[in-house]
Each structure stands twice: as structure tokens, then as C-alpha cells.
Records
---
Amino acid sequence: MAKASETILALKPVIFRYKKEIDPAEALSFGLIAEDVAQVDPNLVTPDRNGNPETVRYEAINAMLLNEFLKEHKRIEEQNCTIQEQESTISELKKEMQVVVARLKSAGFQNSKSERANSDHERRTETGCEFSLNSWKRYQQKETKGNKEDYQTTILRSLRCLL
């Protein structure tokens, strides 16, 4: 029934009234039109003496609906497990980030951009690392004239100094 129940997704429920000879009150009804159901799957209707669709086999449709419901329920349960795993990972990452922030603060990390820039410049100067934003932009625009591998190595070395 795994794929068979997917047939119900093609059915179109309607609001209708039975003929007066079937329902004298002609009350509104909800359901499926046998002829439409027969076009989707002839096994879901009971034919009349002439072989024309007469009634919908709702017991079969109910079983198919239950099967589709169970498949969706399983999918939701799997998604809930994934969400719990993701929430756990996020929680762990937050804790790790707090540790990193605490280490940075204890190492004298400056919050001011200008103070950070001066500190970074001093550190680069002390370690002999030279790196400029213009160099990086030229590399990204591929305007370099020298050996690209040497240029990449220089940039990577400079970036390592920044860390």
C-alpha cells in the first residue's frame, strides 16, 4: 500500500446534493463524485449493472488515508528528532562560543574598533607580517602579475599572522 495510497492525493473532494429520489431533503453532502474517482482509480468505485461508476468505496479510501497519515506522522517524528539534534548542537556551540569570548576577554581583547586596529597593526609589525586590503583586492580581481602560488602563500602567511 506504500505507493497505492498516494492515489488519494489526486482525488478532489466536493460539496454536493443527492437527487430528490435518493434524499428528499436534498441536504448538503461532502464527499467524492464516483465518476471522478473512477478516472483516478477504477478500483475505488463500485459499478452499477451497466458497468458505470455508482458509488465510492469509502472503506478503501479510509484505509488509504490512514496509510498516508501514518507516513506523514513518521516523517514528522523524524523531523522532530533532527530538530532536537540541531538544538543540542546549537546549545553546545553557544557554550563553546562563551568559552572563546571569555578567553578573548581574559587575553585583553579590545572592544573598540580603533583600539583593535591599532593592536592588530602593532602585532603585525612586531611579527613582520605584512598584509593589506588592497593586496587582497588585487588578488581577488586577478590583477596580479607575479606567480599566483607565491602570492597566495604570502597572503595565507599574512592571514595566519592575524590569527
---
Amino acid sequence: MQSLTVSDNVDERPAGILPVAALCAVTGIASLIFAALLFGQLVPLSYGSALLPGGLEQSGPISFLVYGALTLGLAWGLWTRRGWARRLTLLLAVIGVVLAVPGVSSAVVDSRAAAIVREGLQIMVRVAVIYYLSQEPVRDWFSREAKSAAGLAAR
């Protein structure tokens, strides 16, 4: 099992940042592609329910454009050690969990196994992201960037 601690090199990126940033990037690219397909009227809105939780896919292609741009920005921000990206990713993951709960509850009541698995997996991934980004070594890695930037600006 891999430790969450940051190595002796304080500038070394924690191992979990790559998968979280990659997940954000893949989600962003998929959302942008889906938005393009929607603008071309090649797919129905309901196909996007796996990308946007809580029925937000019904808002139209603009919601996929915004979500895609947001998650790509978060991927870049996480990779480049921006504290705002960590906080916004945490917020987006929490919102995603809250919006996914009614979907999984409805799927359980209606005995829709595929929807239970899909919504349940989304909840588990989001909770794992929240857990990882909340760990002290990861928080410290992001806060060291802010402190070192402030130190450079003071010179």
C-alpha cells in the first residue's frame, strides 16, 4: 500500500495528484466532445447523464461546455499546484456526491442494476477524491506552493 506522505523532496508531486488530474482531464474532454455531439444533434441529452449528475444534463449542451472547461481547468490547476484547484475540486466532488444520492436512491427503488452501479461508482470515486485531497500531506503540498510564491513576491 502506498503511503500518503510526501517524500523528502518537498517539491515532489504527491502520487495521487496524477490520477485525480487525469480524471478531471478525461471528464473535461468527454464533456466537450459530448457538447459538440449535442450541438450537431447526433445524440440525445439523456446520454450525458453519466457525465453530469442530478439531471443537469437536461440543461443542454452549454452545461457540458461549462463543465468540460471547468474540469479541464481543474486538471491544469491540480497539476500545476494551484491551491484554488484543490479547493474547487473538493467542492465539485462534494456537490457531485450530493447530486448523485437521489439518483442511486431512485435506482434502488426501481431495481435498475446498471444505474445503481453507475451512480454508486460515481459516489465512490468522488468520496475517494475528497478523502485524498483532504489528507494533510496533500494539503501541505498545495500550501507550500502558496508560501513559496508569497516569499518570492516579497523579495
---
Amino acid sequence: MATNISTNDGFTLKINPVECLGCLACVMVCSFHHTKMLNPYYSSIEILRDDDNATIRLKHYKVKENMHYACDRCQGEKRVLCIDICPTEALYIK
């Protein structure tokens, strides 16, 4: 079952938790896009693992919150980086 993340402009980021490895490559590339640093606290997304229940969820920041940047859909890039870097294609837009 996919988790949907929608913004007011119709942009929906989805994650397939069955395919997600929890490797955080998407989180790191997102933080690098915003700050040119690999720091998960600056990312617009978080991958939240619940090992007790064997679930993975996506948290998506649509507005700046604490140190997390708001998602700008990789403005200035040719593609959405979190989707491109995912080794299992667990992230996608629909």
C-alpha cells in the first residue's frame, strides 16, 4: 500500500513501503539539493521506520519546519532527485 503526499498544486509524492529499503539516499540527496551538505535535518522528506510494526512511512515537509526545508520539487534540477536516486524505485509521483 502506497503512502500519498499531496501539495496544494497537485504534486503528489508517493512511497511504496514494501519496496523501500530505508537506505535514506532520497533524504540525503534532498538535503544536498537545498544546502550542498549531506545532513538529513535539512531534507524536505523523512523516512520513518517502525521496526516493531515492520512499517516505513514518508514524512514530507511542504513548508519550512525547524531545520527541514520545504519541498520545492527540486527547482533548478532536471528531475526530482529523491525519485531518481532511489535504488528500488520506491518513490514516485502520481
